[in-house]
Write a structure and sequence with these properties.
Length: 338
């Protein structure tokens, strides 16, 4: 187990529901995991699996018709669910920051780059004098590889990659402990994406902050993350060290996901694996294990009982009956317990 001083965020049994005309949609269901200080954690899954909702929940940015229905978020020892609005405003920006796929939706089109950054300092640190704020902005922007003259540009005058760097700067200017990058590289071309990925790595090294990379792109996670959390239908189904999971995936969904990624080593005649079925409708999620209608390993108990998230080897968590016992389990041995 990771010692407590290394854990930055503890998420415990978190559930988020969207309240719709058709009934509640269980977008995040009973999710528990930690984010360690200074790590890059990749949160990966198909579109609609709840990963962005989970990222927003960490910032308490869940708006009606969605609601955090239960669970706890402990950030550096503090219970985020107990923060009032004033405390939340300070928390967002000073401790945690988010970069979205389209930075234009977060940047003010009539504000220059320097105005965005100086305003962030002045809102959160009102005693900072303007000259000091300007100096901090100049220093930071240099470290992010943005020329000083671009400080006077408006967001529409910047490239997509540079806008993302400004968004990263908004997190760094207040020394946030965690940046959440939600599909932040999705709209970028591959060259700009590769540069941004390098930069995220460098930022982690230089500033020592944690980064949660939310993406559907498992190849991106392979390149950048230390650990990976695989999400399916609102639940984290596997969590662990990136190399261990890529070398030896345990959950049948992770196995399917990794088998369906094209490889340059793929033989011309080899076909890519195609997972059967469709992701479930979360208004009426499947009973028991949510993956059971698509799972090639499903057992009779899988449709009746939901497995727990269990640590099968140190640091490796799996949400599957193959790796835990149940009185109704017909197979007498646990599949992997090393
Ligand atoms: Fe498959 Fe059962 Fe494991 Fe779910 S619990 S992933 S259905 S084997």
């Amino acid at each position: 187990m990771m010692s407590n001083d290394k854990v930055l965020v503890q998420v415990r049994n978190l559930s988020v529901n969207y309240h719709t005309r058709l009934g509640p949609v269980s977008a995040v269901n009973d999710v528990s995991f930690d984010i360690y200080r200074g790590e890059i954690l990749g949160l990966v899954g198909e579109s609609g699996c709840g990963k962005s909702t989970l990222g927003k929940a960490l910032m308490r940015m869940i708006m009606p018709p969605a609601k955090i229905s239960s669970g706890a978020i402990i950030f550096d020892g503090e219970d985020v669910m107990k923060f009032d609005q004033k405390r939340l405003r300070d928390f967002r920006g000073r401790r945690i920051s988010m970069i979205f796929q389209d930075p234009m939706t977060s940047l003010n089109p009539v504000q220059r780059v320097d105005e965005h950054l100086i305003e962030a300092i002045q809102v959160h640190e009102p005693k900072t004098v303007l000259e000091n704020a300007q100096e901090r902005v100049r220093t930071l922007i240099g470290r992010l590889g943005i020329q000083e003259r671009r400080l006077r540009d408006y967001p529409h005058q910047l490239s997509g990659g540079m806008r993302q760097r400004v968004m990263i700067g908004l997190g760094l200017i207040l020394n946030a402990d965690l940046i959440i990058a939600d599909e932040a590289t999705t709209s970028l071309d591959v060259i700009v994406e590769a540069k941004l990925v390098d930069q995220l790595r460098e930022i982690r090294e230089e500033f020592g902050l944690a980064i949660l990379v939310i993406t559907h792109n498992i190849a991106l996670v392979a390149e950048i993350a230390d650990r990976i959390a695989v999400m399916y239908a609102g639940q984290i189904v596997e969590l662990g060290d990136i190399t261990n999971i890529f070398d030896n995936p345990l959950h049948p969904y992770t196995i399917g996901l990794l088998s369906s990624v094209p490889s340059i080593k793929l033989d011309d005649h080899e076909e890519l694996y195609k997972m059967s079925g469709e992701p479930p409708n979360l208004t009426h999620p499947p009973s028991g294990c949510r993956f059971h209608p698509r799972c090639p390993e499903a057992m009779p108990l899988c449709s009746r009982f939901c497995p727990n998230m269990e640590e099968v080897v140190p640091g490796r968590w799996v949400h599957c009956w193959l790796y835990q016992d149940h009185p109704q389990k017909e197979r007498s041995t646990i599949k992997v317990k090393a």
